[in-house]
Write a structure and sequence with these properties.
With 433 residues, the chain is α+β, with helices and mostly antiparallel strands. Among the domains are: 52-63 and 341-419, Beta Barrel (conserved putative lor/sdh protein from methanococcus maripaludis s2 fold); 67-75 and 256-340, Efflux pump adaptor protein, beta barrel domain (Elongation Factor Tu (Ef-tu), domain 3); 111-225. 36% of the residues lie in helices and 31% in strands. The chain is built from 5 helices and 21 strands. The chain has helices spanning 2-48, 111-131, 137-168, 174-224, 414-419; strands spanning 51-56, 58-74, 77-81, 86-91, 98-99, 104-109, 227-229, 234-236, 246-247, 252-257, 264-271, 283-288, 296-307, 313-320, 332-349, 358-362, 365-369, 372-376, 380-385, 392-394, 408-411. The strands form 5 sheets. It has a 6-stranded antiparallel β-barrel with strand order 2-11-14-13-12-15. A 4-stranded antiparallel β-sheet has the order 3-10-8-5, with no helix packed on it. Strands 7-6-4-9 form a 4-stranded antiparallel β-sheet, with no helix packed on it. Helix 3 (137-168) packs antiparallel against helix 4 (174-224). The longest helix is centred in the middle third of the chain and has 51 residues, at 174-224. Residues 42-46 and 425-433 have low confidence and may be disordered.
């Protein structure tokens, strides 16, 4: 009997526990379902937050500069132009020929210039003979007249003396003496007149000689202008006009320049809005497309006052600090005109400066920082104050987001972040730090 009672008790207990287990099962399922719903809601809310890219402020160098393009050029080039109209009869050089100052480059011949020179030379020979005391017909004629009248003067003098002696002996009248004196004076006046004429003629002949000599010098100069010479030590930069070509006055035949490294400059084209930022002696850093991976330095040597009317740029000559024999005219590159620089400063990527402020993240929320900045480059800016130590800065666009808005974070290395804002690469140019 006891065994049967015990069996019934166990069956009744199992029947009573079954509803409890069902209840707990339902409670567990509800808790699990609530957890899943909460997790989904939390995930949806988190994913709905905008994502911002942040990086940290670091210490490093910063340079403030503006940029321009430039071309290596001689300090001055010399167009060789024809001084006369004529035909190119000689060419002594070709493109690339080295030349010395005074070297003959070419000859432009004009037969008329030779004729005028020969004519002027013959005229000088004639005028020299006319002005020479020994060979001048005009002077010899006057000398002969002077000699003849001097003899007549001497005769008149003797006549006057003879009549004076006769008057002392009462053998002649005073009228005879007056006539003798008058004749003497007329002969003397004639001799003096001829002497004056001779002196005047000599001056006239001398003047004619000097005029002829001046004409000969001009003819010689014009003749010499047929020969074109190099004004400097240098190189012929282009191919000369062909032999046998007929040219006019001022027609260009070739271009000569001194292209030694020490006399080359980087001639930059600076936008007009940057022109007033340039000053003599300003440091300029350069990269040349011909030398990828290398950088060069120079200083502003000359600022040209007149702008290019079409490009609206000003030419600036930059003198290389260390001339390099590898430089050649025509090489191009990029220039950074340094306005300020610091070797060590607190820096952030330039794109972190948005709407006149920096932005950071606190408790997953956007926070605006009223920071003060210093030097600015294309890639980096210096933060002078207002940025807490170790704080992150937002570098992605803030756009329409507001302060206090919750966001998700995406971190990026500071060097990579600065590189996102590099100067546009062009033919190997990698920008300036």
């Amino acid at each position: 009997m006891q065994g049967k009672s015990s069996g019934r008790s166990h069956i009744m207990a199992r029947n009573m526990n079954r509803p409890m287990r069902t209840l707990w099962r339902w409670v567990g399922m509800m808790v699990l379902l609530g957890g899943i719903v909460f997790g989904v809601q939390w995930g949806v809310m988190r994913l709905a937050r905008p994502t911002v890219t942040v990086t940290r402020a670091v210490e490093g160098p910063v340079v403030q500069a503006f940029y321009a393009t430039g071309t290596i050029s001689p300090q001055r080039d010399y167009p060789i132009k024809s001084n006369t109209a004529g035909i190119i009869t000689e060419l002594k050089v070709d493109k690339g020929s080295p030349v010395k100052a005074g070297d003959e480059l070419a000859r432009v011949s004009d037969p008329e210039l030779q004729f005028k020179f020969d004519q002027a030379k013959a005229t000088v020979t004639e005028k020299e003979a006319m002005a020479d005391e020994k060979t001048s017909p005009a002077l010899r004629e006057l000398d002969a007249k002077i000699a003849a009248f001097q003899e007549l003067l001497a005769i008149a003098g003797r006549e006057e003396k003879r009549i004076s002696d006769l008057i002392e002996r009462n053998a002649a009248s005073t009228n005879d003496l007056d006539q003798a004196i008058d004749r003497l004076k007329r002969m003397w006046a004639e001799v003096e007149s001829l002497k004056a004429q001779r002196a005047s003629k000599k001056l006239e002949l001398q003047k004619d000689l000097e005029v002829a000599q001046a004409a000969l010098r001009i003819a010689q100069w014009n003749l010499d202008q047929q020969v074109l010479r190099s004004p400097v030590d240098g190189v012929v930069l282009d191919r000369p006009t062909s032999l046998g070509t007929r040219v006019a006055v001022n027609d260009r035949l070739m271009l000569v320049a001194d292209v030694s490294a020490k006399n080359l400059v980087m001639r930059a084209a600076v936008d007009e809005e940057d022109k007033n930022k340039v000053h003599p002696g300003q440091v300029v850093r350069m990269t040349l497309y011909s030398f990828p991976g290398e950088s060069f330095e120079g200083t502003v040597d000359r600022i040209y006052d007149q702008a290019d009317l079409q490009r609206r740029t000003f030419e600036i000559d930059v003198k290389m600090s260390r001339p390099d024999d590898r430089f050649s005219p025509g090489m191009t590159g990029e220039l950074a005109f340094i306005m300020g620089e610091k070797a060590r400063a607190v820096i952030v990527p330039a794109q972190a400066w948005q709407d006149g402020a920096l932005w950071t993240i606190r408790d997953q929320q956007l926070k605006r920082l009223e920071a003060r900045i210093g030097l600015r480059s294309i890639e980096r800016i210096e933060v002078i104050s207002g940025l807490p130590e170790g704080a992150d800065v937002v570098i992605s666009p803030i756009g329409t987001m507001k302060e206090g808005q919750r966001v998700r974070l995406e971190r990026i290395d500071p060097a990579v972040a600065a590189g996102l804002n590099k100067h546009e690469e062009k033919d190997g140019f990698k920008g300036f730090n």
